[in-house]
Design brief:
The chain is α+β, with helices and mostly antiparallel strands. The chain is built from ten helices and 21 strands. Strands 11, 14, 17, 18, 19, 20 and 21 form a seven-stranded mixed β-sheet that branches.
Length: 471
């Protein structure tokens, strides 16, 4: 029997995925669990293994196409076998299967007859991204309103009511293409005015009030994508952005529009750490099976500083500050095709050895597209090692919804002025690096950011790394 290959669900909130590359061609053999194709979602790029051994009989979804989860994208079978027995079900059957698999919303009692509800006239506002089920609302209507995180963010930014857009995604969910088409056509500039549901009981006459708010013209929202520019001549090559590059572009622009970015740079002396690392790195790798780089030391210093200054491990929600009880460190990993930020969960519970193992494991799996969606979500603070490419210092963009990001410049030997025990000065060769914290000035002031960096600097320069003394 032929085997259907489906688009997997890579995370609870993911409703669709973009098939970016086929790793096998029709007619080629494939083994069970061997990488078959690559996908890109809102959260992660990943290689998808074959569900069974056989031959790739037919490809049903071309590269670059975005399809709902559980869509049949290909058929596997034996050499010479027809794909007919494994063809995907009809649209009606697929819709029926999805409805049967969806949870049934709880029954809602019909409200008793009531007097007309008070008139509510207010300035247009988008439907909340996490709107709860409404009385009598079907599962498909709820799915359409919730949609994907990227779609909700675009809708909220432009004041668009998702429930008013005909969706082409699974169960009528609104896709990114749907909402961008609406915005470009100008058909829906803002969400319709919400209508208050009928009250379960008639209120006293004295309680019937008309509430109105003055119409406030909305500020023009910035475009979510770059304008179309036409180039003439033959000296250009035009190619579409990858799915990952599109997401990076959206998130970087959104972060700049959200946070007031400020960067403070300190110079840190890594001489003691460099000497220790050179002395123990070979024995460290032999004993623990992983390399000892400078980054676990930086992670430990950042954790120490975050414990002392928890404001940098927080987030902003409207006019409230959300303090995170755990320190989940995001570590930016440069890929040949973009950038990804896997997360070291509960990093404050890990030793220096544990941090080294976690960092190396996540980086290796990021480069081979083996990360899971949960491993790139939930970060509370991010560290980026831009110095690995020779950069002395930089001003990185904050990874939303975080409020700060730590950048590590090139760690290199420099001539520095050193004070001798007798008080005289001399020139010495020291291993130095510039490190900077970029923070959201809406929440963090310069004094707070500099205090954080002072703790990082002091930890790296003066800490005794007792875990490594026995090596």
């Amino acid at each position: 029997m032929p085997t259907n290959v489906i688009m997997p669900q890579m995370g609870e909130s993911i409703a669709e995925g973009t098939l970016t590359k086929w790793l096998k061609k029709p007619g080629e053999s494939v083994k069970r669990d061997e990488p078959l194709f690559e996908i890109s979602t809102d959260k992660v790029d990943a290689e998808i293994p074959a569900p069974a051994s056989g031959v790739l009989i037919q490809v049903l979804v071309e590269e670059g196409k975005t399809v709902p989860i559980n869509t049949v994208v290909a058929i596997l079978g034996e050499a010479g076998e027809s794909a007919g027995a494994g063809e995907p079900p009809s649209a009606a059957d697929a819709s029926k299967e999805r409805k049967e698999a969806e949870p049934v919303p709880p029954a809602v009692a019909a409200p008793s007859p009531a007097a007309p509800a008070p008139s509510m006239v207010a300035s247009p506002s988008p439907l909340p991204a996490s709107a709860p089920p409404q009385p009598g609302e079907t599962t498909e209507e709820l799915l359409r309103r919730r949609s994907s995180p990227v779609v909700r963010a675009i809708a909220e930014e432009h004041g668009v009511d998702i429930s008013g857009i005909p969706g082409t995604g699974i169960s009528g969910r609104v896709t990114k293409a749907d909402i961008l088409a609406v915005l470009e056509s100008g058909a829906q500039k803002a969400a319709p005015v919400p209508v208050a549901p009928a009250a379960p009981h008639s209120p006293p006459a004295a309680m019937t009030v008309t509430v109105s708010a003055p119409a406030v013209p909305a500020a023009p929202a910035p475009p979510t994508h770059a304008p179309i520019v036409t180039f003439s001549g033959s000296a250009v090559v035009v190619e579409p952005m990858s799915a990952m590059r599109k997401k990076i572009a959206e998130r970087m622009v959104a972060s700049k529009q959200t946070s007031a970015h400020v960067t403070s740079v300190f110079e840190v002396d890594f001489t003691n750490i460099a000497r220790l690392r050179n002395r123990v790195k070979e024995r460290f790798e032999a004993q623990y099976g992983t390399k000892l780089t400078y980054m676990p030391f930086v992670f430990r210093a950042a954790i120490t500083a975050l414990k002392a200054r928890p404001l940098l491990n927080a987030s902003i929600s409207a006019d409230e500050i959300v303090f995170h009880k755990e320190i989940n460190l995001g570590m930016a990993v440069a890929l040949d095709w973009g950038l990804i930020v896997p997360v070291i969960r509960r990093a404050d519970d890990l030793s220096l050895v544990g941090l080294a193992r976690a960092a190396n494991d996540l980086a290796d799996r990021a480069r081979t597209k083996k990360l899971l969606p949960d491993e790139v979500a939930g970060g509370t603070f991010t560290i980026t090692n831009h110095g690995g490419f020779g950069s002395l210092f930089a001003s990185p963009v904050i990874n939303q919804p975080q409020v700060a990001i730590l950048g590590v410049g090139a760690i290199e030997k420099r001539a520095k002025v050193a004070t001798m025990p007798d008080g005289s000065d001399t020139i010495a060769v020291r291993t130095m690096a510039y490190m900077g914290v970029t923070f959201d000035h809406r929440l963090i002031d310069g004094a707070e950011g500099d205090t954080f960096m002072s703790i990082v600097k002091n930890t790296l320069e003066n800490e005794r790394w007792t875990e490594l003394e026995s090596l």
